[in-house]
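Run log, item B.
One chain of 396 residues. Sequence copied directly from the ordering sheet:
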Amino acid sequence: MNLPIEQDNCLVCRNSSLIPIPGYSELPRVTSDAKPFGKGGALHLCKKCATLQKAVDEKFLEESASIYHSYDLYASSSISSQVVFQETGEADRAALIAKKLSPYMKKDLLDIGAGNGAFLRAVSKENETINLNAYDINERKLNVFSSLENFSHFYSGQLEDVTEKFDVVSVQHVLEHIPDPLSFLSEIKKLIKPGGVLFIQVPDNDKNPFDILVADHVTHFYPETLSYLLELAGYEIVEFTREWVFKEISLIARPLDKPIVKSREHNIDAIYHKLLSNVDYLTNMISDANNYSLDQSFGIFGSSISSTWLYGSLKNKGSVCFFVDEDSTKKGSQHLGVPIYHPFQVPKDSVVYVPLVTQTVNNVIKRSKSENWSFKMHFRQLENISAIGGSQEVRS
């Protein structure tokens, strides 16, 4: 197998089996709160457990600290929860997850990385008897929880200082930010009541190559690598699905007294070369978009991670006249100082570049035909995105 020299220890399996992904450091990046970020960083694949991860060095920690210092999730939206587009149409992410988790809600919920409180508000609407608790690294948004009648306690500082236990501990879009995910999950076990569960949601790197571009994401999960991490940390998986939210993995697990880790075999060569292909795909997308941006009326579809990354990658950012977003809550607002148009507002004969994976692009095209959008869409096709196997859905 023609692979580069191994470096350092894996964040998950702790083995010295990391191999770098060439070309990654030449790609511009983006922050998880949708702001352009410069080139740099290092991406590695573990040759033993197939976990894809950043190099957590001094530079990474400094960059992450600078990102979190001015972090502002959903800045371009008029509401605090993210809208997602499913096969059935537009949906509120927080409300969708609250409904899916309702069978597990008993008395006490702790939401780790509670942010602006969108999920806890959704749970409160779904079940007014649940005691809501939040944890975040600082108290900057403590006031957002005061309006919740059934809100119990806000925790900050060190997670190990939390001594209470909960029926459900929720960790949504947090795990990918954690420099030591194994120790983090082991610590959370202490917070779960007997019979209680842990809920995790992370980006699905198998379906979303743009996730590697997020500068403050440490680990990029495939279904198999996330399952392996949970088993190592001493959990039994109760539910595992990629169906709740497209391009995301949702997982419910129970703590075990003793870890049970299944043996796995990975085609590392295939995964490695797929990652190289994804880097090429992203590099070529920049070239494509630069060519199309020469049009007099040019826009970018979306106003979150992939669209922000593409905007930040263009030679002439001033060529972007508008972003296009189907989320009606963003209509009339701006992103990065550029107006956000609903598809019906886009000037006729405009050129709109769509930086999305093929399945999403196909869904957008279907909606454009049924709703008669008038702009021209351009995108780079991505085929055979899957690099590693994984169960679509598991229930026990």
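Observations after the first pass:
- The first strand starts at residue 18 and ends at 20.
- The helical segments are 58-69, 93-101, 118-126, 181-188, 223-232, 268-292, 305-313, 358-371.
Flagged for discussion on Thursday.
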